[in-house]
Amino acid sequence: MVARLIGGWLGVADPAGWMIIAVIISIAGTAGDLLESMLKRSLELKDSGTFLPGHGGFLDRFDSVVVSFPLVYLIFAIFG
Questions:
Q1: Residue 51 contacts by C-beta under 8 Å, 6 or more apart in sequence?
Q2: Distance CA 49, CA 66 (A)
Q3: Angle value at C-alpha 79, between 78 and 80, nearest 5 degrees
Q4: What is the Cα–Cα distance from 52 to 30, expressed in whole angstroms?
Q5: Label partner for 44 (CA 20 to 30 A): which of 8, 35, 59, 65?
């Protein structure tokens, strides 16, 4: 339902395209989280910084976005 609303409002992709993008975002977000956790463990760090105290650092809050946004941009650039 949300894909249909966004597809009609933005006009960038049809509802099926938005559903595909949603699947890609959920997979890429999980991959980004796992990659960031693997990087921290290999460096034996608990937090990735002190920019956001109490949240584990900047990368712990935005690790999924770091991987998802470029993929969505590429999808729009190639197929949009």
A1: 57, 58
A2: 16
A3: 105
A4: 21
A5: 65
In order, the DSSP letters of 7-61 are: HHHH-SS-HHHHHHHHHHHHHHHHHHHHHHHHHHHHTT-S-S-SSSTTTT-HHHH
Q: Are 12 and 80 within 8 A, CB to CB?
A: yes
Residue 39 to residue 44: CA distance in whole angstroms: 9
pLDDT at residue 16 above 80? no
Contact 59, 66 (CB under 8 A): yes
**Quick one: tokens of 17?**
């395209």
Structure tokens at 56: 């584990």
Mean pLDDT confidence for 15-27 = 85
Q: Tokens representing 63?
A: 């690790």
pLDDT in tens, 27-51: 999 998 898 888 888 888 776 666 6
Query: Are 59 and 49 within 8 A, CB to CB?
Result: yes
